[in-house]
Design goal:
The protein is mainly β. The chain is built from one helix and nine strands, in the order E-E-E-E-E-H-E-E-E-E.
Length: 183
């Protein structure tokens, strides 16, 4: 058997300074929102690949720790500073057995996630500052099964898959805030 193991991490950070003004018939009116937003993420992962007797097995797991912070700089209406932590675990496994020289099967399972973006979290339908408390992690479960042919002059594959997602962000507008999109 041939086993490969990979361990790793990645780190990312984003900062936004968001300001919003009253719309006075197309002209900039008074400042009504001024906030500094920061999104930082630390991900750690392990991936293993095993080859043995014509069978390839891949597996992995990833843990992400996402921290979102908002510092309210427009405190005339109160301090709406906020912090949010969205953590997620993403496992994945696949198996690919060979069926002779040119044919092979493959199948797999994965669980993935996506956090809301700062721009989506920053529009709070309550009309106040701070993050939208209704938003959370969007996740997707994926299953796939297929067959593959690799010949000397041609290749083909047929795949069936099913993805089930939850907590998808859906945009909408409120009559009280015309032209502003909420999620």
């Amino acid at each position: 058997p041939n086993l490969n193991l990979q361990l790793g991490y990645d780190w990312a950070s984003q900062s936004d300074h968001r300001q919003r003004y009253d719309n006075q018939n197309g002209l900039r009116g008074a400042l009504n929102l001024d906030q500094f937003e920061q999104f930082s993420s630390l991900g750690t992962y392990a991936i293993a690949t095993l080859r043995n007797n014509g069978i390839l097995v891949n597996g992995g797991v990833r843990y992400d720790r996402n921290r979102l912070q908002l510092s309210d700089r427009f405190t005339a209406d109160g301090d709406d500073s906020d912090a949010l932590r969205l953590d997620a675990i993403s496992p994945q496994v696949s198996i690919t057995p060979r069926l002779g020289t040119h044919w092979g099967l493959f199948g797999g399972y994965a669980l993935s996630y996506e956090t809301p973006a700062l721009s989506e979290l920053a529009v709070n339908p309550t009309g106040l500052g701070g993050f939208n408390p209704e938003l959370g992690i969007q996740s997707a479960q994926q299953f796939e099964l297929g067959i593959r042919f690799n010949g000397r002059q041609s290749a083909a594959s047929l795949t069936a898959y099913h993805i089930r997602s939850t907590n998808e962000l859906t945009p909408y507008e409120l009559e009280a805030f015309p032209g502003r999109t909420f999620y």
